[in-house]
């Protein structure tokens, strides 16, 4: 994930910053506890595509 691109993306639900989960190739909204997929290198930031996750916020950098 391009860092410059990541810095310009926000959660479509909360407008919060996103974190890249490199291991699972997805973007995480800590605030909403939602993971958004990255398909063919393109973040899919549609609320209906987000998957609710429970996680320890400190585990995602």
From TrEMBL:
Q: Name one Pfam family in it.
A: Trm112p
What does the record give under GO molecular function? kinase activity
Identify the keywords attached in UniProt to this record, alphabetized: Kinase, Transferase
Q: Which Gene3D superfamilies match?
A: 2.20.25.10
InterPro entries for the chain:
Trm112-like (IPR005651)
Q: Does the keyword Repressor apply?
A: no
Family membership noted in the UniProt record: Belongs to the UPF0434 family.
> What is the name of this protein?
UPF0434 protein C5N92_02655
Q: What is the source species?
A: Glaesserella australis
